[in-house]
Specification:
Largest sheet: none
Strand content: under 5%
Mean pLDDT: 80
Order of helices and strands: HHHHHHHH
Number of helices: 8
Radius of gyration: 16 Å
Structural class: mainly alpha
Number of strands: 0
Shape: elongated
Helix content: over 70%
Oligomer: single chain
Distance between the termini: 20 Å
Length: 188
């Protein structure tokens, strides 16, 4: 298994965490007052889900990676381009579910955590195609998402939905940039 450099993994983690960060801000808006307990709950659910999904995608990718060895970098590029493009598109609209999320409702929180971590499933799949060891990226992705989700709740309770759309836009651009970097590294 190859090792991916820390800066690339950290960039991917930041990009993946942007959905969770935006939803965390919306969660903070619904609280109106900051509560450490709820911020920690949101961070644990989002960070845990973001750490679990790449493992699932990576395991699935291991089953089929031998079929894609010649085009693996194109697939990784394509997946990151689609995920980043989706995030950029979603930054132009604000879904009603994000505006009404309540961190006190466990079922809602589970649904939001899974919804915001679907992109991480595709990234885990890409890691397996690139033969990248999953364990370091999973720790970094989970930790970055935990921290940003906690901060998101704090921002949401203090500043409302002022930054929500811009955050997803930045995350999408970050993932597209990383996809281009992976493609260029393999082509050169």
């Amino acid at each position: 298994m190859r090792f991916m450099d820390f800066i690339t993994i950290f960039g991917i983690a930041i990009g993946l965490a942007m959905d969770a960060f935006a939803v965390s801000i919306a969660s903070g808006v619904t609280l109106q007052r900051f509560h450490v307990r709820y911020a920690t709950r949101v961070a644990l659910f989002f960070g845990g889900s973001q750490a679990l999904m790449p493992i699932v995608g990576w395991l699935a990718g291991l089953k089929v990676s031998s079929f894609f060895q010649l085009i693996d970098h194109w697939i990784a590029f394509g997946l990151l381009l689609v995920i980043g493009g989706k995030m950029i598109y979603e930054s132009t609209i604000l879904e009603k579910t994000e505006k009404t999320c309540d961190p006190r409702n466990i079922l809602t929180l589970i649904g939001l955590a899974l919804a915001t971590s679907i992109d991480a499933l595709a990234v885990g799949f890409s890691f397996s195609l690139l033969r990248v060891s999953i364990w370091t990226p999973v720790l970094i992705i989970g930790a970055v998402t935990f921290v940003l989700s906690f901060i998101g709740v704090v921002i949401g309770t203090h500043f409302g939905s002022l930054f929500e759309r811009k955050i997803e836009l930045v995350g999408g651009l970050c993932l597209i940039g990383i996809g281009v970097k992976i493609l260029l590294q393999h082509l050169m």
